Amino acid sequence: MAENHLEYGYLEGESIGEQFTEDPELLAIKARVQELEMEEESERLKEEERCDAVDMQLLTSSPQSGPFYNMTPEERIDADNRSIYVGNVDYGATADELEIHFNGCGPVNRVTILCDRFSGHPKGFAYIEFSDRDSGQSAISVVTACELCFEDNC
């Protein structure tokens, strides 16, 4: 008769979970599995961040230790005024190669080759930051001359 009562209660809309409690040992196992999954995800994210930092370090040549976003607004404006955009950069080019190429125009502070966030492949353009504005203007004239004559080494 007790069996009929349980079935009737279930049919009347009571959930089975209300009648039976989960085993505490099973709950502990589920909690531990969830904790391990979260730890694995955290480790994967840390590794991904570390790889991104290493990739950025390889693609950015800079004697300065602080990144651009740690600068004051005035320093950012000054850095922007001393920087040039270089398009149509070969996908195999490195920051060191670009620095060597543009060193003839003046001292280079930083070379930044932007990469796709998901694939990690270069986007085909770069920013070159010089020590002074005159070097940047000289580099613009060199880049313009190269575009006009279509030579690799102007």
Question: What features would you describe in this structure?
Answer:
The protein is α+β, with helices and mostly antiparallel strands. Helices cover 55% and strands 15% of the residues. It is built from six helices and four strands; from the N terminus they run H-H-H-E-H-E-H-E-E-H. The chain has helices at 2-11, 16-19, 24-59, 73-81, 95-102, 133-149; strands at residues 60-61, 83-86, 108-115, 122-130. Strands 1-3-4-2 form a four-stranded antiparallel beta sheet. The radius of gyration is 30 Å and the shape is elongated.
State the low-pLDDT regions, or none: 61-65
- Report how far apart the termini are: 98 Å
Radius of gyration: 30 Å
Give, in spatial order, the strands making up the sheet with the most strands. Answer: 1-3-4-2
**How much helicity do the residues have?**
40-55%
Give the total of beta strands.
Answer: 4
Roughly what fraction of the amino acids lie in strands? 5-15%
> Structural class of the helix and strand makeup?
alpha+beta
The outline comes out as elongated
How do the helices and strands follow one another from N- to C-terminus?
Answer: HHHEHEHEEH
Average pLDDT, all residues: 76
What count of helical segments does DSSP give?
A: 6
What does the largest sheet look like? 4 strands, antiparallel
